[in-house]
Amino acid sequence: MDGWTNGLRAIIGGDADDDDDARDRRRESRHDFCGHKVIIRQRRTLGILHLKNVSSRGACGITDMPVAVGSMVFLELKKPHFYAAEVLWVRSLTIGLQLVRPVKSEMLEKLHATHLSAREERERKEMAL
Question: Which of 30, 75, 37 is CA-nearest to residue 53?
Fold first, then answer.
């Protein structure tokens, strides 16, 4: 499909079958980061991005901070460093981002391992209650 067609599909949204096509078009596999929160910054505005998944080249998540397709934002993936990203698509409160510079796979693996251990710890505490 042409670039303008993909842009139109991003604005309008797609069918459930389109989600399978989107996964097939991804250049890199994504790591599950559900429940992980990071700071998102655009100019002087700060917000929280509830991550869904992250790859070395992009991220997806939910935020209530209004962002427009094509705008630049900054994510605090690793404190105190912010990573620049372009907003590729917006659907309701969910946004898709493409990082300006890819994250090194070693750093991504380390972040994911830290996220998983923190999530397991939270689940253990919930089970103890």
Answer: 30
Residues 68 and 91 sit within 8 Å (Cβ to Cβ): no
CB 82 within 8 A of CB 76: yes
SS3 102: coil
Q: Specify the 3-state DSSP secondary structure of 101.
A: coil
> 3-state class of 67 per DSSP?
coil
CA distance 125 to 129: 7
In this structure, are residues 98 and 92 in contact, taking their beta carbons and an 8 Å threshold?
A: no
Domain 30-128 class in CATH: mainly beta
DSSP state of 28: S
- Token pair, residue 60, equals 């997806």
Q: How far apart are the first and last CA of the chain?
A: 51
- 67-104 residue pLDDT tens: 999 999 999 998 889 999 999 999 999 999 999 999 99
Domain boundaries, the chain: 30-128
Map residue 123 onto helix, strand or coil. helix
Quote the CA–CA distance of 81 and 10 in Å, as a whole number: 29
More confident site: 123 or 85: 85
